[in-house]
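To: structure subgroup
Subject: Chain for Friday's discussion

All,

I'm putting the inputs and outputs inline so they're searchable in the archive.
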Amino acid sequence: MANILRYRTASDEAFNDLFRGFFMSPVRFDGQQDIQIKVEVAEDDKAYTVHAEIPGVKKEDIRVTVDGNQVAISAEVKNEKEVKEGGKVLRSERYYGTVSRSLALAQEVDDSAVVAKYVDGILELNLPKRTVEKAKQISIQ
């Protein structure tokens, strides 16, 4: 049997290449900063430990929410840098906005015992695992 191939013109391929992946990632402009929260998650028998890098943010501008096994971290980012020479602004880089990150953990978290610390741009979360109650056996009378 002969192989049957679909005929494609060069313009079809160029059109497909133009839109392939266009909607998959956000459009970024030259010089725009890539602001994101980078995390490291560790686990032991009793708790999860999350280290999140959020440099240049005040601890009052950070929000952490826990709902079952979902953990959400958000922060209001205000990054300003100015280089001045005699009163004339030579360069200004500013970013204002909210950055967030959400995690789904394998086990639910005991939200009443969560401990959060923010030191030197690192947010440390200690997320104790919720104890799973074992099925209770009922005796039949």
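Points worth raising on Friday:
Helices lie at 10-19.
Confidence is low (pLDDT under 50) at residues 22-32.

D.
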